[in-house]
Design goal:
Elements: H1 26-35, H2 46-50, H3 52-80, H4 88-125
Helix pairs in contact: 1-3, 3-4
Length: 126
């Protein structure tokens, strides 16, 4: 007789670099992943080191600002790049690059949200 496997359902947006919530050392893996999303100078701030929820909040803000920058770059590429001497082929490639970056950042934002929710729930359970 085989025992049924019990699994905790996690978001499809959960980053593969972060261990499943509740597993050994998952908070540390979450903090490590979140640190990669913020400028390196933030890694040394004691409050962000001691409180992963604060780090997650900052990562959310960082990713949203990066999305804003990429959207601005996309929206202005056609009007500004010709004046910089960029040929049409480079402009088209750049537009595709920014569009892909926005999609990637949207995915990262969903992942950060999932990790943040898990960290907040874990903190509340303590």
């Amino acid at each position: 007789m085989t025992m049924p496997l019990t699994t905790t359902r996690i978001s499809p947006d959960w980053p593969c670099q972060v261990k499943q919530p509740g597993s050994y050392d998952w908070e540390r893996s979450a903090a490590k992943w979140l640190r990669e999303l913020v400028p390196a100078r933030y890694a040394g701030y004691p409050a962000l080191i001691r409180h992963p929820v604060l780090l997650a909040r900052h990562a959310q803000i960082q990713v949203h600002h990066e999305m804003r920058v990429a959207r601005t770059a996309l929206q202005t590429a056609r009007s500004e790049l010709p004046a910089l001497g960029m040929p049409e082929s480079v402009i088209e490639h750049t537009i595709k690059l920014y569009a892909a970056e926005i999609r990637q950042l949207q995915h990262i934002a969903r992942s950060v949200r999932a990790v943040t929710e898990a960290l907040v729930a874990h903190t509340a359970d303590r």
